[in-house]
Every structure is written in C-alpha cells, then in structure tokens.
Amino acid sequence: MPDLQRREFIVQGSAALAGIAGLYASLAHAFPTRRPGEEVVPWLDQPAENPDPVGIQTQLVWEDMDSWITPNDKFFSISHFNRPTIGEKTWSLEIGGLVKKPLKMTLADIKARPRQEVVFTVECSGNHGFPFFTGGIGNARWAGTPLAPILQEAGVLEKGIEVVFFGTDKGEVTIRDIKMHQNFARSMSLADAMNPDNLLCYEMNGATLPAPNGFPLRLITPGWYGIANVKWLKSIEVRDTRFMSLLMGRDYVTIREEEHNGETVWAETSVGRALLKSAPAKVTRNDSGHRIVGAAWGAPIARVEVKIDQGPWMPAVIDHSEEAEYAWKIWSLDWENPSPGEHTVTSRAISTAGQIQPAMDDPLIAKKHTYWESNGQVTRRIRIV
Ligand SMILES: Nc1nc2c(c(=O)[nH]1)N[C@H]1C(S)=C(S)[C@@H](COP(=O)(O)O)O[C@H]1N2
Ligand SMILES: [Mo]
C-alpha cells in the first residue's frame, strides 16, 4: 500500500469513539468457544510494525478475538486519501446522473426511511498481503436504509448501466504526467447496485456510524471486499459507461498469470466480490487441554479443516449459535496432547459450492503478483511448553 503512505492526511481524533464505547460493550456476545479458566497461548509470528498508522488504523488482534461481533473500538479502518470530518447539519447526499428525478437527502430524510440491518464481515482485500497487515477484518451489525428503493425513486433512465459512489475524501492522483484530484470513488453495475441487501448505512453495532468507518453515511454491500463499501458518502451518480478511478482501475487491481490452453495469459482484474477464506484466531489452554479457534468467511461455508505441522487435515467444529448469511463463522478444534516445542497451525475453508481455500503454493496464489485478494491459507506458528 505504498500509495497510502505518501498522502497528506487530515488526522481526526477518536474522541467520538470513546464517548460511545459504553454503548456497544453491552452488545458484545459471549464467545461460544470459551472455556472456564482458559488462557491464550500467543502466536510466535506477530505482525510487523504498521508503517502507515493513519491509512491503516486499529487492526484486529486475532488473539484478543472474544466475540462474534467486533466492537467498534476494535474495528479496523482504512483511508486512502484524507479522513474527512463531516458535520451532520451541512451534509447531504445527492443522487443524480442518468435519473429522471435527481434527489438530495439529509441524514434525517435517510433515517426516516425503512430501516434494515445486516451482520456482515468486512475484509480489506489487502488483508494478509503484507507482514504488517493481518488484521484488516471485522464483523459488525450494520443498520441503514436499502439503496434499491432510492434508485427506483430517482428513476434510472434506460441507458444507465453503472452506479458510481463518491466519497467526500479526495487526493491527488498522478497518471503519466497528469496530476488530478479525485474523490474516493467506486462503481457497481446497476444490477449489483440494486441488490436488496445493499444499505445506505448510518449505524454500526447499535451506535452512530463512527467517523473512521464513514460517518455520517456509507455504502454497505454484503459479499464484497471492503473497498466496495464506500465511506463518507457524498453522491451517487448513474452513468451510461463503465467507470474508472484509482480504486477501480489502477489500485485494487489484481495481476495474475493464468494458464489458458497451455499459454500464459497475464490477467488484470478489478477487486470486487469477497473470496473464500479462513484463519486461525488463537490457541487457548485450560486444565482439559488446548483448543484452536478461528473464523471462516467470504463465501457460504460448508466446512473448515485444520492442519498441524505437516499432519492430515482434521475437521473443525463450526459454531452455529451466532450465524448470519454474510458473517464469519467461528470454528474450533480441540488439539489433543500437542508435543512440547514449535508447531504450525493452518486452516482452510470449504464452501458449500465445493471450493477449497487455496494453499499458498496453489498457482492461484503463487502466480498472483499483487497483494490484493490474499485469500491463501493462513499458517501461524506457536510454541507449546
Ligand atoms: N470514502 C472511502 N471509502 C472507503 C475507503 C476510503 O479510503 N475512502 N477505504 C475502503 C477500504 S480499502 C476498505 S478495506 C473499507 C474499510 O472499511 P472500514 O474502514 O470501516 O473498516 O472501506 C472502504 N471504503
Ligand atoms: Mo481495503
């Protein structure tokens, strides 16, 4: 993410966050795999120091994961440009472009519309792409109003095929010798934008959407990588051509060597839908032994398997006490009599469609030359005493 490091940022304090801290503490759910008297055995491989604490704020600390819902003050936050401070009173959302009736809505207008919630695990597609970025994921209950009826009300014209979401944040982008100022922007096809699960979201885990996560309004598009979930929304524009921006066509582009009939094709694809993934979260220990706990997400999960060192894949137990279509699943495996010394723990998720999370040496991962869409199997190291 070298682009993140170079930018000037308007740093915003997290005072607002501290104020609502009490609110969501009561929302934290008891973690299903917790056992009496257990303690966490720390991983040996800790993440490297974050070189960009403004661009990447507050990563998930896997060992500390103790609730299905990630509390707001522990939720990661990514900013590519500045971090805008938006006053609710002066803010409004414009819906325009190729529509019959352009709309302008205040936050009160949006809150007066039908409310809808979704529990959705948001992951940055760069997560696990760098040694310093392994906690770019969190699970929250998002609330807002569905996007589709608003687009319907505006009346998308026949030739409208693309819906662009602009953030308030902006930065300088240089392409060849052209310097320009672009707002953060991402687009979706009209069909994808009309998905009834998409929300214009103003609430996170029962609290006002925190500034780092997009106050006053963000797009929540369940099933897509973090980048598609545009924060600090400013406007929505319907167009008649495909849309490009830094975050669609240059950055957040995966470059991969693919085999097509024995020939290598270098493919460039824009990051979009989430991919099948899992990770071990922590190993705990109490009087009755060791237990490996983790999460799986990115596609409907059928099974999760765990491998210790170079041993066989063993089936983990998926917890069904807290579940939602777009939320991560928590799994665990009791680790019988681990031998003292160093071990590796690897997990892989298997989707209901039969896909298997790829190993790091699978050509899908090994022949990927960019760090986006890093959904390869995660291996952690641990010392048992
Ligand atoms: N306006 C705007 N929206 C944005 C971003 C941004 O920099 N600006 N970052 C995106 C990225 S890369 C991710 S991973 C998610 C992260 O959401 P979060 O910060 O609430 O965790 O927001 C996305 N939406
Ligand atoms: Mo991201």
- CATH fold topology of the largest domain: Sulfite Oxidase, Chain A, domain 2
Small ligands present: the ligand Nc1nc2c(c(=O)[nH]1)N[C@H]1C(S)=C(S)[C@@H](COP(=O)(O)O)O[C@H]1N2, molybdenum atom
- Level-1 CATH class name of the largest domain: Alpha Beta
Shape label: globular
CATH architecture of the largest domain: Alpha-Beta Complex
Output mean pLDDT.
92
> What's the alpha carbon Rg, rounded to whole Å?
21 Å
Organism: Rhizobium mongolense USDA 1844
GO molecular function: heme binding; molybdopterin cofactor binding; sulfite oxidase activity
GO biological process, one term: sulfur compound metabolic process
Protein name: DMSO/TMAO reductase YedYZ molybdopterin-dependent catalytic subunit
